[in-house]
Amino acid sequence: ILSNIVFETSRGILQSTHRFGQFASVNLAQSILTFVLISAAFLTTSASIPFVLTAYIAGKTLAGIAIVVLAVRALNEKLPGWLRVPLNVYSGWRGMFSFAFNTNLNGTVNIFVRDNIPLYIISLTSKEGAGYFRIAMSFINLLMLPVEPFISPTYTEITRTIAEKNYTL
Predict the structure, then answer these.
(1) Could you count the other beta carbons within 10 Å of the beta carbon of residue 55?
(2) Do 62 and 33 touch, CB atoms closer than 8 A?
(3) Which of 111, 97, 103 is nearest to 155 (CA)?
């Protein structure tokens, strides 16, 4: 959690500076690291739950730190000296904190809603219900596969268009 504390904000910075390739590269590196560590555990027969959890956390930590570093670099290129500007000089600081809070809140809500749904289903119904849910979600994820890469960039461009008031009613 600590390594991902500003992950969503950093992702927003990378998206708004059109660095989708960097974000994708970090996600790929995270997946490869997690896969290699879990595969090593499987092949060496030390595949315990703590080791798998450590592998997962290592991948998430790599992604969290790398995305923040890339976002800081992007800001240094687009807004040189941004770290030395006092907040009271910037009149829109409330909006900036609102953006940071909302993007990170979005990630937190996703953890509780999307990632924990099987746990909720098990507690409210049964393991079989969670199994059926998992199968249904697998089909939905397969159907969403062609659309998924367009969601984040589309959201970014819609947000930019609205912020610039570059639209007609």
Answers:
(1) 20
(2) yes
(3) 103
Cβ neighbours around 2 below 10 Å, total: 6
Task: Select from 121, 137, 141 the least CA-distant residue to 129.
Answer: 121
Q: Which two tokens stand for residue 68?
A: 């923040």
Q: Per-residue pLDDT for 69 more than 90?
A: yes
pTM (two decimals): 0.59
Q: Token digits for 27?
A: 């996600």
Burial of 99 (0-12, 13-18, 19+ CB in 10 A): middle
Mean pLDDT of the chain: 82
pLDDT in tens, 11-62: 888 888 888 888 889 988 988 998 898 888 888 866 677 887 888 888 888 8
Helices then strands, counting H and E runs in the chain, come out as 7, 0
Amino acid at residue number 95: G
**How large is the average pLDDT for residues 97-104?**
74
Cβ 113 vs Cβ 19: under 8 Å: no
Q: Tokens 């099987």 label which residue?
A: 118
Distance of alpha carbon 159 from alpha carbon 163, whole angstroms: 6
Q: What is the dihedral of CA 82, 164, 26, 119, to 10 degrees?
A: 110
